[in-house]
Design brief:
Length: about 240
Amino acid sequence: MHEGHRRRLYEKLKSGDNLYEHEVLEMLLFNAYPRVNTNPIAHELLKRFPSISAVLSASYDELVSVPGVGERAALYLMCAGRCLEKVNSSDCFSVVKSRGDAAEFVRLRFAGKTTEYLELYFLDKNGKVLRICSFTTGESHRVTVPPEEVIRLISVCRPYGILAAHNHTHGVTRPSAVDDDFTKELQIICSMNNVRLYDHMIFAEGLPVYSYFDSGKMSEIERGFSINSILRHGK
């Protein structure tokens, strides 16, 4: 009986439908009580506290004083509240507002790495870093990413723009032909998905971060490898 109700709530969540506050609490409590009807407990919590936010900021003693809320549920709700605090804190998301910010962000991400990584930073229109997609083969000199994986991630995350970065472990930041080809491929993918590719940066210890944008190569690639330019040349 409970399984059918839970599945209906999960389907509402998955499809993006509006959920009542007690339904959100119910689903949180599923994890604390796998085999218990959590609907009455959710309603009891909202009788005591004016909102979900108040529930998640309540103390242990306050929570266990609510009928039906035991130690497991109280601790789970407190943990969820701590997560909410982190999400709402001002330093939770990095914001890239300038080329200097981007270079510093890349330095912080790659400093000390001894194997080669490629990272894609998915940004909103204000430069907030929404997602970080990191790839490595575990090798010190090579990293590859299948284009279909990049397309899948873009379709799921739907960023406004992308900043790409990778590190060279051999002490130079000059891009290779492989780096150029990847940037061209990424530009085509972004263009097809109406996503802006801001830059591709290369990090090496002790050297300034290389920028395709600053070097002028990014604008060349953008002109030659957008979907519109490819279609024009194909006529």
